[in-house]
Amino acid sequence: MITLVTGGIRNGKSRYALGLARQCNIPGPKYFLATAEPLDCEMQSRIAKHQEERAGDFVTIEEPLHLAQAIEKAQRECGVILVDCLTIWVSNLLFRLADMPDEIKNEIKSLIQIVELKKTDLIFVTNEVGLGLIPDNPLGRRYIDALGNLNQRIAHMSDEVVFMVSGIPMRAKPR
Description:
Elements: E1 2-7, H1 13-23, E2 30-34, H2 41-54, E3 59-62, H3 67-74, E4 80-84, H4 86-96, H5 101-117, E5 121-125, H6 138-157, E6 160-165, E7 168-173
Parallel strand pairs: 1-5, 1-6, 2-3, 2-4, 4-5
Antiparallel strand pairs: 6-7
């Protein structure tokens, strides 16, 4: 089963996705694939808070760029993989591979291909970018285009899409 949990910033997406993963009754360990990097003190604090929320329930893999490879490896030995989050992953790709647009496309294509195989339960967390203003700069527009297109692709492949509004889950695509 593939689930996409989307919504605005600070709307309870990660907490909700953790609950879904904890309820999963598939044998094997639960994996948490983290895409964020602790680049400053504030982000270090956020990451530490998220680690506390997982409290040993998950095997954590930190992978800021090569998400498809990490999923492919983890799915051999786990029951469910929670990816948190596609929003930061796309940002990482655009900043770290800025001069390599083909590599960015290949990473996204590889992710889509591994998701299409549906070898394990996957839960993706992402931010909805289609409700805000169009950025006034080329990088911002490239970002919302890339993330918006990825979100659409994952949503279409998903069995369930949950849109979080102020901590309330709304099923946009029921099981």
